[in-house]
Write a structure and sequence with these properties.
The chain is an alpha+beta fold and 414 residues long. It has helices at 2-8, 64-78, 154-169, 192-202, 245-257, 259-276, 314-321, 332-342, 393-412; strands spanning 15-21, 38-42, 45-50, 54-57, 80-83, 93-97, 108-111, 114-119, 122-128, 145-149, 175-186, 207-211, 214-218, 221-226, 229-240, 280-284, 290-293, 297-308, 329-330, 353-358, 363-367, 371-375, 378-387. It has one domain (2-130, 147-412): 4-Layer Sandwich (Anthranilate synthase), CATH 3.60.120.10. Strands 1, 2, 3, 5, 8, 9, 10, 11, 12, 13, 19, 22 and 23 form a 13-stranded mixed sheet that branches.
Length: 414
């Protein structure tokens, strides 16, 4: 036992206690004033956490998910756990954010000191070490927000889209996903709790998340593991919401009938099918997508479900699936080369896996979309678009701007 603790850099094993509590109401409203709280919330359920019992930087490289699973197994196996709930997300839980590029530094795992959770009508509190709830102070709005160009100006990014279209038409690849960033500076230090509350209320269908300063509301569930059951939601193909009901329905019908968007979606679904088939004894993939309506955009969506082989952790699934064609392109290797050539930036955690895992290997992981990296009074906002051979740069730029408005709303309110 002592040997493992020393290997992990700990002086003693974690002392973890989980017990049922009365319904806490709004989980996010219980977060204390922390520079970087942790959260995973959808429809008011999920986990809100703070403090850091353990934090580790995951080494970059192709084996980073295996390293993360091994490290967590040692940590959780050594912990002294009193879990009186026994549900997914009870007991010790680690939040994680992995960079999009496997060779980039910045992937992190954190076991929070306090976790408040609600699921299926039950609520519980997990504490590590001293059992106490921190004082909750009123959230502070960031004040005036000033925006600036990110790695590329709008015209430069539109030109990058045109270059990608040329690469696709030449036959080098079928699809590339190009991301755009935007900088924001606030009058005061940005209180992440304000952003989380706004996102959770405005986008309840999305997964509102916060991990190590990466904050957002992603519509895309990479994987949920509950026992041997897994679920995934594949999104690819997007159009803005309409100005009224008739316009909205017309836009949705046009999206559903779009050859370009349907093919883009089919590429994303096929990449998920190829990743999950070796891990699953059963796999259900719908033949036709459905429309997912969010407050600002509509997506083509395909819910995928399956049954895992015994002993497969949620991190094993994440490793197999990332990057999907929905955030990288097709074929993957060539798409990543084109992204590095044309984007002109380090994506950091954008479009990388973000989520949580417990000691049973259960967990929920999304793709970090509609997000921003927060540091003090500064934020770096991200959005991306799937580029196909018939993509129009001006239309893709408009789509990226529509996606950026999610985090602009979180910063500004109103």
């Amino acid at each position: 036992m002592f040997r493992v603790s020393v290997a992990l850099g700990l002086t003693r094993p974690l002392l973890v206690r989980t017990a049922l509590v009365d319904d806490p109401g709004d989980l996010l409203a219980r977060l204390p004033d922390e520079a970087a709280p942790y959260a995973w919330i959808r429809h008011g359920e999920g986990l809100a956490a703070w403090g850091e019992a353990v934090r580790v930087a995951v080494p970059p490289g192709s084996g980073r998910f295996d390293w993360a699973r091994s490290w967590l197994s040692s940590l959780f196996d050594e912990a002294h756990v009193d879990d009186r709930v026994g549900a997914p997300g009870s007991g010790p839980v680690a939040f994680g954010s992995f960079t999009f590029d496997p060779d980039a530094h910045g992937s992190v795992l954190v076991v929070p000191r306090v976790i408040l959770a609600r699921r299926d009508g039950r609520a519980w509190l997990t504490t590590i070490g001293e059992e106490r709830l921190d004082l909750v102070t009123a959230p502070r709005t960031p004040g005036r927000i000033r925006y600036g160009d990110g790695s590329l100006t709008a015209p430069e990014w539109a030109h990058a889209v045109a270059l990608a279209v040329g690469q696709i038409r030449s036959g080098r690849l079928e699809k590339a996903v190009l991301a755009r960033d935007l900088t924001a500076t606030a009058d005061r230090a940005i209180d992440v709790r304000v952003l989380l509350s706004r996102l959770a209320h405005r986008y309840p269908e999305c997964y509102t998340f916060s991990c190590a300063g990466l904050v957002g509301a992603t519509p895309e569930l990479l994987v949920r593991r509950t026992g041997e059951t897994i679920e995934s939601l594949v999104l690819a193909g997007t159009t803005p919401r309409g100005t009224d009901q008739a316009d909205d329905m017309a836009r949705g019908a046009a999206l559903f009938a779009s050859e370009k968007d349907r093919y883009e979606h089919a590429c994303a679904v096929e990449s998920v099918r190829e990743a999950l088939t070796p891990l699953c004894s059963e796999l259900k993939v719908p033949e036709e997508p459905e429309l997912l309506l969010l407050s600002n955009v509509q997506h083509l969506a395909s819910p995928v479900s399956g049954r895992l082989a015994a002993g497969t952790s949620v991190l094993d699934v994440v490793a197999a699936m990332h990057p999907t064609a929905a955030v990288g392109g097709t074929p993957t290797r060539t798409a990543l080369e084109v992204i590095r050539e044309l984007e002109g930036m380090d994506r950091a955690g954008y479009a990388g896996p973000v989520g949580w895992i417990d000691a049973r290997g259960d967990g929920e992981w999304g793709i970090a979309l509609r997000c921003a990296q927060i540091e003090g009074s500064r934020a770096r906002l991200f959005a991306g678009c799937g580029i196909m051979g018939d993509s129009v740069p001006a239309a893709e730029l408009a789509e990226a701007q529509a996606k950026l408005r999610v985090m602009q709303y979180a910063l500004e309110g109103g």
